[in-house]
Amino acid sequence: MTKKIRWGILSTAGIAQYHVIPAFKRAENAEVVAISSLSGRAEEVAEAFGIEKAYDSYHEILDDDAIDAVYIPLPNSLHKEWAIRAAYKNKHILVEKPIALSSTDVLEIKQACLDNNVILMEAFMYMLHPQHQRVKTLIEEGAIGEVKHFESTFTFYLTDRDSNIRMEKDLGGGSLYDVGSYNIHAMRYILDDEPKSVSSQAVIDDVTGVDLSNVSYYTFDSGVTATLTSSFDHFHQNAYRVIGTEGIITVPYAYRPDNHGGLGEVILTTTAYETTETYMNDLYRDEVEHISYAILNNQAPINTLTNSYRNMRVLELTKEAFTTGKTVLIDPDE
């Protein structure tokens, strides 16, 4: 029988109920044994999903010795606090993106994990879809010649603005930290490189002060450039393109292939032909199984804390660029 990591969940957030708890049910090496909520809904959600224990505080989950790891889908502003608390209770961690609100926060989380031999992964689940490895392989094989530009767009129209935490500045709201974080992560992952500068513009909500839309331009030492767009004001898109001297690779369902039944497409366009390859996976299940496997085997997950630090560094400097209106130089290891 496959050994299972026993998970606790901090909060009854929508992403937990709609995506991650069902994924745990499908996973072979993980199970949810407890859930907690400050809203009083833990028992209701536990009953709905057949979860053994329901707690009314997050501390109770961290104090439960029967729990090996915790999933943290709390508001962005609370990720740092509860990741550090979990690490010092020797719980391994899957935390929703962004991992924190600043690179300094990430360094504190990293130190807590190192001090307590805890494995943590920031939940950029898109990485585990096989379409992206295919893109990287095509680039390495020279299918589009020399890479010159990367474009990524992750947008949707946010309807419930009066009540959605994405519109709360103090909680780490705004399109950049929400969906723009995927764009930055994919840019770095697919290009396997770090940007050297960013210029950026944003549409700021007059009432809340969060960025509703953001367009950013990045340069790399290699000469490659990138343009990234995030928005709460546009029709839903979650795609990227890699443009080379001899062709283009398009990934139309880059970040949420689960909205298309797990379908991913890699479209290769050259002057001679166009091909479309399809790939399938169970994205959230694969995320759960991946981090659980890493814990069981005491190995680093695909998205390391070092990578999370570098991604956050680019995120916060992008925000600085649109706040100041200046081009900002990026040193990912600063």
TrEMBL record:
Annotated keywords: Oxidoreductase
Domain of life of the native organism: Bacteria
Domain Gfo/Idh/MocA-like oxidoreductase N-terminal: 5-123
Keyword Disulfide bond appears in the UniProt entry: no
Domain GFO/IDH/MocA-like oxidoreductase: 132-249
SUPFAM superfamilies listed in its UniProt record: Glyceraldehyde-3-phosphate dehydrogenase-like, C-terminal domain, NAD(P)-binding Rossmann-fold domains
Record InterPro entries: Gfo/Idh/MocA-like_OxRdtase_N, Gfo/Idh/MocA_domain, GFO_IDH_MocA-like_dom, NAD(P)-bd_dom_sf
Gene3D superfamilies recorded: Dihydrodipicolinate Reductase, domain 2, NAD(P)-binding Rossmann-like Domain
GO molecular function terms attached to this record: nucleotide binding; oxidoreductase activity
KW Oxidoreductase (keyword) present: yes
PANTHER family the record matches: OXIDOREDUCTASES (PTHR22604), TRANS-1,2-DIHYDROBENZENE-1,2-DIOL DEHYDROGENASE (PTHR22604:SF105)
Family, per entry: Belongs to the Gfo/Idh/MocA family.
Protein name: Oxidoreductase
Species whose genome carries this gene: Halolactibacillus alkaliphilus
